[in-house]
Amino acid sequence: MAVENVLKLAQENNIEWFDFRFVDLSGRAHHISLPASEVDEDTFLNGVAFDGSSIPGFRGIEESDMVMMPDPESVFIDAFTAHPTLNIMCNIFTPDGERYERDPRGIAEKAEEYLQTSGVGTAAFFAPESEFFIFDDVRYQSDVNVSSYSVDSNEAFWNTNRKEDGGNLGFKIRKKGGYVPVAPVDSQQDIRSEMCRLLEEAGLRIERHHHEVATAGQAEINFRFDTLKLTADNLMKYKYIVHNTAQQYGKTATFMPKPLFGDNGSGMHVHQSIFDGDTPLFYEKGAYANLSEMALHYLGGILYHAPALIALTNPSTNSFKRLVPGYEAPVNLVFSKGNRSAAVRIPIASVTPKGCRIEFRTPDSTANPYLAFSAMLMAGLDGIKKKMDPRELGYGPFDKNIYELPEEDKVGIRSVPASLEEALDELEKDFDFLLEGDVFTADFIQNYISFKRAEAKDVAIRVHPHEFSLYYDC
User: What is the DSSP string of 162-212?
Assistant: First the structure.
């Protein structure tokens, strides 16, 4: 959308505020609002100043001045503000006009530019399946003398005997029993439909929504694929709208991977493919899962670099509470057609040539989407460049339920790292593929590793409530 069209849109909708947004290393959005009377074409040329030293992982106080440069293609009207507001995603620049190398959205742009100059294709398409929980109550505390959390949901199986106003009406969701039941067991049809309505108003094309496997309000909404940066923008809109719709309903939504012990966690399965113009490059009729050699090399790169990638696609300590066998978590670094126990699945149901794709099932929504999608693309392109054949590298195909294989048959199957620290160790050893085309820089990687190690240490040094169960009577 041209700048003049953005200003026209604002005028036609009586916009009072322009909300300029950017994304930090963790994938959280930040914003500064300007009155509509103060926004003109010069604002889009000169940007909006902000203090980069107040954003964790950005810059020191001695070089804190930074500039948000608005992207007029990213605008959408905010559905949650009392005063009409137009939201705009921004890229980050230094005051001298240089692209800031630690800007996640800028990295996504560079990844797309690298693809186009590589000669492989013209566009990479991504489609994340970002699962989440809708709770009725959440409480947590971490202090010198207390460490606790509690979540609750009217749907949860542990509430079958709870006294409720008007009586307990039953119809709770059993543990691991939440996959697509109808109402009244699924009590969240309307809130998900409202989320979808608002997402469509914000420009996303919704494909479907449903209840997910876990008890206590696990949900999934699927939106249409798009190019790398635009899909990351859409995922930021998605999380914003999910969080705020839940808040309006008096509920709370979380994309935390594992808020419940003993039930399924929330993942972000990422579908991806490459096109050359209108021609899909991942399709070859009659091949295994109708997958082209290029697609096999791409997924070979994903699996080869997966231990390092996971530091970017599963970047929280909680991520590794989900990545354990037995809860549909894809911990095995192999590929397969239609097999949800493999880290890389090739969907085969109702797939057209243009719909032919791979699905990396390991990631979760604590990932910064700009960084995660860029890193996956770079790993895949490295696989194409080096012709990494996953069959020769021992990554499959495995068309059996890997969870149920005898231990002797699992010999040689690599698993994901067991912790965030292990994933960061892997990234420290294997990041050269991310530096191609200056998409990521060594400075960014080193800063990111330090930033995430600090998070891991914060968790590791704290007393865990379960330790009282294990050791208090020692």
Answer: ---TT-----PBPTT--SSPPTTTS--HHHHHHHHHHHHHTT--EEEEEE-
Q: How confident is the model at residue 326 (pLDDT cuts 50, 70, 90)?
A: low
361 labelled catalytic: yes
Neighbours of 349 (CB within 10 A): 6
pLDDT in tens, 8-57: 999 999 999 999 999 999 999 999 999 999 999 999 999 999 999 999 88
Which residues, 6+ apart, have CB-to-CB distance to 58 below 8 Å? Answer: 24, 25, 52, 66, 102
Which of 129, 263, 382, 426 is labelled catalytic? 129
CB-CB neighbours of 101 under 10 Å: 16
Of 21, 345, 361, 364, the active-site residue reads 361
Architecture of domain 3-100: Roll (3.10)
Q: What is the pLDDT of residue 420?
A: 98
CATH class for the region spanning 123-465? alpha beta
Break the chain into its structural domains and give their ranges: 3-100, 123-465
